[in-house]
UniProtKB/TrEMBL annotation:
Residues 34-45 have a biased composition (Basic residues). One of its GO terms (biological process) is protein O-linked glycosylation via mannose. It comes from the Eukaryota. Pfam families: RXYLT1_C, RXYLT1_N. The gene is Rxylt1. Residues 246-435 form the RXYLT1 C-terminal domain. GO terms for molecular function: ribitol beta-1,4-xylosyltransferase activity. One of its GO terms (cellular component) is Golgi apparatus. InterPro entries: RXYLT1-like (IPR055286), RXYLT1_C (IPR057538), RXYLT1_N (IPR057539). Residues 34-71 are annotated as: Disordered. Keywords: Transferase. This is RXLT1 xylosyltransferase. Residues 97-240 form the RXYLT1 N-terminal domain.
Length: 440
Protein backbone atom coordinates (compact mmCIF):
# COMPACT_ATOMS: atom_id res chain seq x y z
CA UNK A 1 0.00 0.00 0.00
CA UNK A 2 2.76 2.37 0.93
CA UNK A 3 4.65 1.46 -2.27
CA UNK A 4 1.62 2.32 -4.38
CA UNK A 5 1.32 5.70 -2.72
CA UNK A 6 5.00 6.43 -3.31
CA UNK A 7 4.68 5.51 -6.97
CA UNK A 8 1.63 7.77 -7.31
CA UNK A 9 3.38 10.70 -5.66
CA UNK A 10 6.45 10.21 -7.87
CA UNK A 11 4.27 10.15 -10.98
CA UNK A 12 2.53 13.35 -9.95
CA UNK A 13 5.87 15.07 -9.29
CA UNK A 14 7.24 13.96 -12.67
CA UNK A 15 4.09 15.16 -14.40
CA UNK A 16 4.28 18.52 -12.64
CA UNK A 17 7.94 18.83 -13.64
CA UNK A 18 7.20 18.07 -17.29
CA UNK A 19 4.35 20.58 -17.28
CA UNK A 20 6.62 23.23 -15.77
CA UNK A 21 9.30 22.61 -18.39
CA UNK A 22 6.72 22.89 -21.16
CA UNK A 23 5.36 26.12 -19.71
CA UNK A 24 8.88 27.58 -19.46
CA UNK A 25 9.58 26.59 -23.04
CA UNK A 26 6.35 28.17 -24.22
CA UNK A 27 6.97 31.44 -22.40
CA UNK A 28 10.72 31.93 -22.77
CA UNK A 29 12.11 29.72 -25.54
CA UNK A 30 9.41 29.19 -28.12
CA UNK A 31 9.97 31.41 -31.23
CA UNK A 32 7.41 34.17 -31.49
CA UNK A 33 5.89 34.80 -34.89
CA UNK A 34 6.10 38.29 -36.21
CA UNK A 35 2.76 40.02 -36.35
CA UNK A 36 1.39 40.18 -39.87
CA UNK A 37 1.21 43.62 -41.47
CA UNK A 38 -2.02 45.46 -41.08
CA UNK A 39 -4.33 45.64 -44.06
CA UNK A 40 -3.75 48.87 -45.98
CA UNK A 41 -7.31 50.15 -45.45
CA UNK A 42 -7.84 48.98 -41.91
CA UNK A 43 -10.14 51.21 -39.88
CA UNK A 44 -8.09 52.57 -36.98
CA UNK A 45 -11.01 54.38 -35.39
CA UNK A 46 -12.41 51.34 -33.62
CA UNK A 47 -12.25 50.63 -29.91
CA UNK A 48 -8.80 49.86 -28.49
CA UNK A 49 -10.40 46.97 -26.57
CA UNK A 50 -11.36 45.16 -29.78
CA UNK A 51 -8.69 42.67 -30.83
CA UNK A 52 -8.91 41.16 -34.29
CA UNK A 53 -8.11 37.45 -34.32
CA UNK A 54 -7.16 35.88 -37.60
CA UNK A 55 -3.96 36.56 -39.51
CA UNK A 56 -2.64 38.71 -36.62
CA UNK A 57 -1.34 37.06 -33.47
CA UNK A 58 -1.39 38.91 -30.16
CA UNK A 59 2.14 39.49 -28.82
CA UNK A 60 2.38 40.10 -25.05
CA UNK A 61 5.88 41.61 -25.47
CA UNK A 62 4.93 43.96 -28.30
CA UNK A 63 4.78 47.05 -26.03
CA UNK A 64 8.16 46.31 -24.46
CA UNK A 65 9.72 45.66 -27.86
CA UNK A 66 8.44 48.98 -29.18
CA UNK A 67 9.76 50.82 -26.12
CA UNK A 68 13.14 49.13 -26.50
CA UNK A 69 13.26 49.99 -30.21
CA UNK A 70 12.40 53.62 -29.43
CA UNK A 71 15.07 53.78 -26.71
CA UNK A 72 17.60 52.17 -29.04
CA UNK A 73 16.78 54.69 -31.76
CA UNK A 74 17.22 57.54 -29.28
CA UNK A 75 20.61 56.19 -28.20
CA UNK A 76 21.67 55.85 -31.83
CA UNK A 77 20.62 59.41 -32.63
CA UNK A 78 22.34 60.74 -29.49
CA UNK A 79 25.58 58.93 -30.38
CA UNK A 80 25.34 60.20 -33.93
CA UNK A 81 24.90 63.77 -32.67
CA UNK A 82 27.88 63.32 -30.33
CA UNK A 83 30.04 62.14 -33.23
CA UNK A 84 28.92 65.10 -35.32
CA UNK A 85 29.73 67.53 -32.51
CA UNK A 86 33.13 65.95 -31.94
CA UNK A 87 33.89 66.10 -35.66
CA UNK A 88 32.71 69.71 -35.83
CA UNK A 89 34.89 70.63 -32.83
CA UNK A 90 37.85 68.86 -34.42
CA UNK A 91 37.32 70.74 -37.67
CA UNK A 92 36.97 74.08 -35.86
CA UNK A 93 40.06 73.50 -33.71
CA UNK A 94 42.57 73.22 -36.51
CA UNK A 95 45.67 74.23 -34.54
CA UNK A 96 47.19 73.38 -31.17
CA UNK A 97 49.66 75.89 -29.72
CA UNK A 98 51.64 75.59 -26.49
CA UNK A 99 52.91 78.85 -24.97
CA UNK A 100 56.03 78.65 -22.79
CA UNK A 101 56.10 81.71 -20.55
CA UNK A 102 59.76 82.32 -19.66
CA UNK A 103 59.42 86.08 -19.18
CA UNK A 104 56.93 88.08 -17.13
CA UNK A 105 55.50 89.63 -20.28
CA UNK A 106 53.97 86.22 -20.93
CA UNK A 107 51.57 86.83 -18.06
CA UNK A 108 50.41 90.04 -19.75
CA UNK A 109 49.78 88.02 -22.91
CA UNK A 110 47.86 85.26 -21.15
CA UNK A 111 46.04 86.95 -18.25
CA UNK A 112 45.45 90.47 -19.60
CA UNK A 113 45.14 90.05 -23.37
CA UNK A 114 43.78 86.48 -23.55
CA UNK A 115 41.92 86.90 -20.24
CA UNK A 116 43.07 83.38 -19.39
CA UNK A 117 43.27 81.82 -15.95
CA UNK A 118 46.17 79.95 -14.34
CA UNK A 119 46.20 77.12 -11.84
CA UNK A 120 47.27 77.31 -9.14
CA UNK A 121 46.41 80.97 -8.55
CA UNK A 122 49.44 81.39 -6.25
CA UNK A 123 51.91 83.63 -8.10
CA UNK A 124 54.84 82.01 -6.25
CA UNK A 125 53.99 78.48 -7.47
CA UNK A 126 56.78 76.59 -9.23
CA UNK A 127 54.43 75.51 -12.03
CA UNK A 128 51.29 77.21 -13.34
CA UNK A 129 49.19 76.35 -16.36
CA UNK A 130 46.00 77.21 -18.21
CA UNK A 131 44.24 76.57 -21.50
CA UNK A 132 41.53 77.96 -23.75
CA UNK A 133 40.18 77.73 -27.28
CA UNK A 134 40.37 80.91 -29.35
CA UNK A 135 39.63 81.18 -33.03
CA UNK A 136 40.47 77.84 -34.62
CA UNK A 137 43.27 77.28 -32.13
CA UNK A 138 43.52 75.45 -28.82
CA UNK A 139 46.04 77.28 -26.63
CA UNK A 140 47.78 75.91 -23.56
CA UNK A 141 50.05 78.02 -21.38
CA UNK A 142 52.73 76.97 -18.89
CA UNK A 143 55.01 79.10 -16.75
CA UNK A 144 57.02 79.01 -13.55
CA UNK A 145 60.57 78.21 -12.38
CA UNK A 146 59.99 74.46 -12.87
CA UNK A 147 59.49 74.92 -16.61
CA UNK A 148 63.03 74.17 -17.79
CA UNK A 149 64.29 72.66 -21.07
CA UNK A 150 63.77 68.90 -21.25
CA UNK A 151 61.82 68.61 -17.99
CA UNK A 152 58.24 69.15 -19.15
CA UNK A 153 55.92 67.63 -21.70
CA UNK A 154 55.90 69.14 -25.19
CA UNK A 155 52.20 68.79 -26.03
CA UNK A 156 51.86 70.60 -29.36
CA UNK A 157 53.70 70.83 -32.66
CA UNK A 158 53.42 74.62 -32.54
CA UNK A 159 55.16 76.62 -29.82
CA UNK A 160 55.16 80.26 -28.72
CA UNK A 161 58.24 81.00 -26.64
CA UNK A 162 58.08 84.11 -24.42
CA UNK A 163 61.56 85.47 -23.68
CA UNK A 164 63.32 88.40 -22.02
CA UNK A 165 66.01 90.03 -24.13
CA UNK A 166 66.37 93.27 -22.21
CA UNK A 167 69.96 92.77 -20.96
CA UNK A 168 72.96 90.49 -21.45
CA UNK A 169 72.20 87.97 -18.71
CA UNK A 170 68.62 87.62 -19.92
CA UNK A 171 69.80 87.14 -23.50
CA UNK A 172 72.11 84.30 -22.42
CA UNK A 173 69.18 82.53 -20.78
CA UNK A 174 66.95 83.20 -23.80
CA UNK A 175 69.46 81.66 -26.22
CA UNK A 176 69.52 78.47 -24.16
CA UNK A 177 65.81 78.13 -24.76
CA UNK A 178 66.20 78.87 -28.45
CA UNK A 179 68.83 76.14 -28.78
CA UNK A 180 66.49 73.71 -27.03
CA UNK A 181 63.71 74.63 -29.46
CA UNK A 182 66.08 74.20 -32.38
CA UNK A 183 66.77 70.63 -31.24
CA UNK A 184 63.04 69.93 -31.12
CA UNK A 185 62.67 71.29 -34.65
CA UNK A 186 65.54 69.13 -35.92
CA UNK A 187 64.08 66.00 -34.33
CA UNK A 188 60.63 66.80 -35.79
CA UNK A 189 58.97 67.05 -32.38
CA UNK A 190 57.65 70.51 -33.19
CA UNK A 191 56.99 72.21 -36.52
CA UNK A 192 56.53 75.94 -35.96
CA UNK A 193 57.90 78.49 -33.52
CA UNK A 194 56.94 82.06 -32.66
CA UNK A 195 58.77 84.25 -30.15
CA UNK A 196 57.28 86.99 -27.99
CA UNK A 197 60.24 89.08 -26.91
CA UNK A 198 60.59 91.69 -24.20
CA UNK A 199 63.08 93.64 -26.25
CA UNK A 200 65.92 95.90 -25.26
CA UNK A 201 64.76 99.41 -24.29
CA UNK A 202 67.12 100.90 -26.87
CA UNK A 203 65.99 98.30 -29.46
CA UNK A 204 69.37 96.54 -29.59
CA UNK A 205 67.88 93.21 -30.63
CA UNK A 206 70.42 92.08 -33.22
CA UNK A 207 71.11 88.87 -31.32
CA UNK A 208 67.67 87.46 -32.22
CA UNK A 209 67.99 88.02 -35.97
CA UNK A 210 70.05 84.87 -36.85
CA UNK A 211 67.27 82.75 -35.33
CA UNK A 212 64.62 84.22 -37.64
CA UNK A 213 63.57 82.14 -40.62
CA UNK A 214 64.23 85.03 -42.99
CA UNK A 215 67.90 84.82 -41.95
CA UNK A 216 68.15 81.03 -42.22
CA UNK A 217 66.88 80.29 -38.73
CA UNK A 218 63.81 78.43 -37.47
CA UNK A 219 61.68 81.15 -35.80
CA UNK A 220 58.67 81.80 -38.01
CA UNK A 221 57.31 84.87 -36.22
CA UNK A 222 58.63 87.51 -33.83
CA UNK A 223 56.48 89.76 -31.62
CA UNK A 224 58.73 92.37 -30.01
CA UNK A 225 58.20 95.32 -27.66
CA UNK A 226 59.17 98.95 -28.26
CA UNK A 227 59.49 100.75 -31.59
CA UNK A 228 61.78 98.18 -33.20
CA UNK A 229 62.79 99.54 -36.61
CA UNK A 230 62.65 96.09 -38.28
CA UNK A 231 58.90 95.66 -37.66
CA UNK A 232 57.41 94.79 -41.05
CA UNK A 233 53.98 93.26 -40.23
CA UNK A 234 55.04 90.15 -42.18
CA UNK A 235 57.12 88.12 -39.75
CA UNK A 236 58.12 90.82 -37.22
CA UNK A 237 55.35 92.55 -35.28
CA UNK A 238 55.34 95.20 -32.58
CA UNK A 239 53.92 94.01 -29.27
CA UNK A 240 52.73 96.17 -26.33
CA UNK A 241 54.86 96.38 -23.19
CA UNK A 242 51.79 96.06 -20.98
CA UNK A 243 51.67 96.24 -17.21
CA UNK A 244 54.44 95.24 -14.79
CA UNK A 245 53.39 91.63 -14.24
CA UNK A 246 56.83 90.96 -12.72
CA UNK A 247 55.57 93.13 -9.82
CA UNK A 248 52.27 91.24 -9.87
CA UNK A 249 50.18 94.10 -11.24
CA UNK A 250 46.66 92.62 -11.34
CA UNK A 251 43.93 92.37 -13.93
CA UNK A 252 41.70 95.28 -12.92
CA UNK A 253 37.93 95.01 -13.34
CA UNK A 254 36.26 98.45 -13.69
CA UNK A 255 33.79 99.27 -10.92
CA UNK A 256 31.00 101.82 -10.67
CA UNK A 257 32.98 103.92 -8.20
CA UNK A 258 36.08 103.83 -10.43
CA UNK A 259 34.06 105.36 -13.22
CA UNK A 260 31.79 107.76 -11.32
CA UNK A 261 33.42 108.93 -8.10
CA UNK A 262 35.23 112.29 -8.03
CA UNK A 263 38.98 111.88 -7.67
CA UNK A 264 41.08 113.69 -5.09
CA UNK A 265 44.04 114.60 -7.32
CA UNK A 266 44.42 116.18 -10.73
CA UNK A 267 47.46 114.05 -11.51
CA UNK A 268 50.05 111.65 -10.12
CA UNK A 269 53.65 110.66 -10.60
CA UNK A 270 55.30 107.97 -8.47
CA UNK A 271 58.69 107.01 -9.82
CA UNK A 272 62.40 107.53 -10.15
CA UNK A 273 63.82 110.94 -11.06
CA UNK A 274 67.06 110.42 -12.96
CA UNK A 275 69.80 113.03 -12.94
CA UNK A 276 69.83 115.42 -15.91
CA UNK A 277 66.59 113.97 -17.27
CA UNK A 278 63.29 115.54 -18.30
CA UNK A 279 61.89 114.15 -15.05
CA UNK A 280 63.88 116.79 -13.17
CA UNK A 281 62.24 119.39 -15.38
CA UNK A 282 58.86 117.90 -14.58
CA UNK A 283 59.49 118.15 -10.84
CA UNK A 284 60.54 121.79 -11.14
CA UNK A 285 57.41 122.68 -13.12
CA UNK A 286 55.15 120.91 -10.62
CA UNK A 287 56.65 122.92 -7.77
CA UNK A 288 55.85 126.18 -9.56
CA UNK A 289 52.60 127.80 -8.49
CA UNK A 290 51.98 124.94 -6.06
CA UNK A 291 50.91 122.46 -8.75
CA UNK A 292 52.54 119.64 -6.78
CA UNK A 293 49.89 120.18 -4.09
CA UNK A 294 47.18 119.31 -6.61
CA UNK A 295 48.86 116.04 -7.55
CA UNK A 296 50.04 112.87 -5.81
CA UNK A 297 53.83 113.08 -6.21
CA UNK A 298 56.28 110.57 -4.76
CA UNK A 299 59.72 110.83 -6.36
CA UNK A 300 62.76 108.70 -5.60
CA UNK A 301 66.35 108.94 -6.79
CA UNK A 302 66.99 105.23 -7.46
CA UNK A 303 64.88 102.67 -9.29
CA UNK A 304 63.52 99.89 -7.09
CA UNK A 305 62.59 96.68 -8.92
CA UNK A 306 60.80 95.17 -5.93
CA UNK A 307 57.64 96.59 -4.42
CA UNK A 308 56.64 96.42 -0.79
CA UNK A 309 52.97 95.85 -0.03
CA UNK A 310 52.71 99.44 1.15
CA UNK A 311 54.41 101.02 -1.86
CA UNK A 312 52.36 98.93 -4.30
CA UNK A 313 49.11 99.87 -2.58
CA UNK A 314 50.11 103.55 -2.65
CA UNK A 315 50.80 103.28 -6.36
CA UNK A 316 47.43 101.69 -7.10
CA UNK A 317 45.66 104.25 -4.92
CA UNK A 318 47.41 107.07 -6.78
CA UNK A 319 46.14 105.73 -10.11
CA UNK A 320 42.63 105.26 -8.76
CA UNK A 321 42.43 108.71 -7.15
CA UNK A 322 44.00 110.78 -9.96
CA UNK A 323 42.36 112.09 -13.11
CA UNK A 324 45.68 112.14 -14.97
CA UNK A 325 48.85 110.03 -14.79
CA UNK A 326 52.07 111.74 -15.83
CA UNK A 327 54.30 109.54 -18.01
CA UNK A 328 57.75 111.10 -18.55
CA UNK A 329 60.26 109.25 -20.71
CA UNK A 330 62.77 106.91 -19.09
CA UNK A 331 65.24 104.81 -21.04
CA UNK A 332 62.37 104.37 -23.49
CA UNK A 333 59.23 106.41 -24.07
CA UNK A 334 56.99 103.40 -23.58
CA UNK A 335 56.55 102.39 -19.95
CA UNK A 336 54.38 100.12 -17.81
CA UNK A 337 52.76 103.20 -16.25
CA UNK A 338 50.86 103.94 -19.47
CA UNK A 339 48.97 100.63 -19.41
CA UNK A 340 48.55 100.61 -15.66
CA UNK A 341 46.93 104.06 -15.77
CA UNK A 342 44.53 102.81 -18.45
CA UNK A 343 43.53 99.94 -16.15
CA UNK A 344 42.30 102.44 -13.56
CA UNK A 345 40.81 105.01 -15.92
CA UNK A 346 43.48 107.60 -15.22
CA UNK A 347 44.33 109.33 -18.49
CA UNK A 348 48.05 109.10 -19.42
CA UNK A 349 49.83 112.38 -20.14
CA UNK A 350 52.78 111.23 -22.25
CA UNK A 351 56.03 112.97 -23.05
CA UNK A 352 56.03 112.36 -26.80
CA UNK A 353 59.79 112.37 -27.33
CA UNK A 354 62.13 109.80 -28.91
CA UNK A 355 64.77 108.39 -26.58
CA UNK A 356 68.39 107.65 -27.63
CA UNK A 357 69.10 104.29 -29.23
CA UNK A 358 68.05 102.28 -32.27
CA UNK A 359 64.29 102.60 -31.82
CA UNK A 360 62.38 104.62 -34.36
CA UNK A 361 60.30 104.51 -37.49
CA UNK A 362 59.95 101.24 -39.35
CA UNK A 363 58.98 100.43 -42.90
CA UNK A 364 55.37 100.09 -41.70
CA UNK A 365 55.06 102.84 -39.09
CA UNK A 366 56.18 106.47 -39.31
CA UNK A 367 54.90 107.91 -36.04
CA UNK A 368 57.52 106.87 -33.50
CA UNK A 369 57.63 106.89 -30.59
CA UNK A 370 54.69 104.76 -29.42
CA UNK A 371 53.73 103.99 -32.98
CA UNK A 372 51.62 100.97 -31.99
CA UNK A 373 49.51 103.00 -29.55
CA UNK A 374 49.15 105.86 -31.99
CA UNK A 375 48.09 103.49 -34.76
CA UNK A 376 45.42 102.16 -32.41
CA UNK A 377 44.27 105.79 -31.82
CA UNK A 378 45.00 105.85 -28.10
CA UNK A 379 42.99 108.71 -26.51
CA UNK A 380 45.96 110.05 -24.50
CA UNK A 381 47.36 113.54 -24.00
CA UNK A 382 50.68 113.82 -25.88
CA UNK A 383 53.00 116.74 -25.09
CA UNK A 384 56.46 117.54 -26.40
CA UNK A 385 57.65 119.48 -23.37
CA UNK A 386 56.60 119.49 -19.72
CA UNK A 387 56.28 123.27 -19.95
CA UNK A 388 52.90 122.49 -21.54
CA UNK A 389 51.71 120.80 -18.33
CA UNK A 390 50.43 123.92 -16.46
CA UNK A 391 48.00 124.63 -19.30
CA UNK A 392 46.87 120.99 -19.26
CA UNK A 393 46.21 121.12 -15.51
CA UNK A 394 44.43 124.47 -15.79
CA UNK A 395 42.06 122.95 -18.34
CA UNK A 396 41.62 119.97 -16.05
CA UNK A 397 40.46 122.18 -13.20
CA UNK A 398 37.61 123.52 -15.35
CA UNK A 399 36.27 120.11 -16.39
CA UNK A 400 33.02 118.97 -14.81
CA UNK A 401 32.72 115.61 -13.11
CA UNK A 402 30.36 114.43 -15.84
CA UNK A 403 32.97 115.25 -18.49
CA UNK A 404 35.60 113.32 -16.55
CA UNK A 405 33.25 110.36 -16.16
CA UNK A 406 32.71 110.23 -19.91
CA UNK A 407 36.46 110.43 -20.49
CA UNK A 408 37.12 107.56 -18.07
CA UNK A 409 34.55 105.39 -19.81
CA UNK A 410 36.08 106.18 -23.17
CA UNK A 411 39.59 105.36 -21.91
CA UNK A 412 38.63 102.06 -20.29
CA UNK A 413 36.59 101.03 -23.32
CA UNK A 414 39.50 101.89 -25.63
CA UNK A 415 41.88 99.83 -23.52
CA UNK A 416 39.49 96.87 -23.53
CA UNK A 417 39.20 97.08 -27.32
CA UNK A 418 42.96 97.50 -27.66
CA UNK A 419 43.61 94.23 -25.83
CA UNK A 420 40.89 92.45 -27.81
CA UNK A 421 42.40 93.64 -31.09
CA UNK A 422 45.88 92.57 -30.04
CA UNK A 423 44.54 89.14 -29.13
CA UNK A 424 42.79 88.74 -32.47
CA UNK A 425 45.86 89.94 -34.37
CA UNK A 426 48.02 87.44 -32.48
CA UNK A 427 45.67 84.55 -33.24
CA UNK A 428 45.22 85.48 -36.90
CA UNK A 429 48.97 85.81 -37.39
CA UNK A 430 49.67 82.38 -35.91
CA UNK A 431 46.89 80.69 -37.89
CA UNK A 432 47.89 82.32 -41.16
CA UNK A 433 51.49 81.26 -40.65
CA UNK A 434 51.14 77.83 -39.01
CA UNK A 435 48.11 76.35 -40.77
CA UNK A 436 48.64 74.80 -44.22
CA UNK A 437 47.65 77.04 -47.09
CA UNK A 438 44.45 76.19 -49.00
CA UNK A 439 46.04 77.31 -52.24
CA UNK A 440 46.71 74.53 -54.72
Amino acid sequence: MRGARKRLCSALIIAYGLFSLYAAYTVFLRPRRTAAPRPPHRDRRGSRDHVSVGNEEWNPWEGDEKNEQAASQQRYEANLEMIKNARSHLEQTSLRVQIWGKAAIGLYLWQHIFEGHLQPADVTAQWREGSQKAGRTYFSFITGPSVVPGYFSVEAENVVLVLNGREKAKITYATQWLHYVQTLIQTHKIQHVAVVLLGNEQCNNEWIQPYLQRHGGFVNLLFVTYDYALVNEEDIFQWPLGVATYRNFPVVEPSWSMLHDPRSYLCNFLGTVYKNSSRETLMEILKQDGLDKLCWIAAREQWQPQETNESFKNYQDALLKSDLTLCPVGINTECYRIYEACSYGSLPVIEDVMTPGDCGNSSMYHSAPLQLLKTMRAPFIFIKNWKELPAVLEKEKKMSLQEKIQRRKKLIEWYRNFKARMKQKFINTLENSFLPSDKG
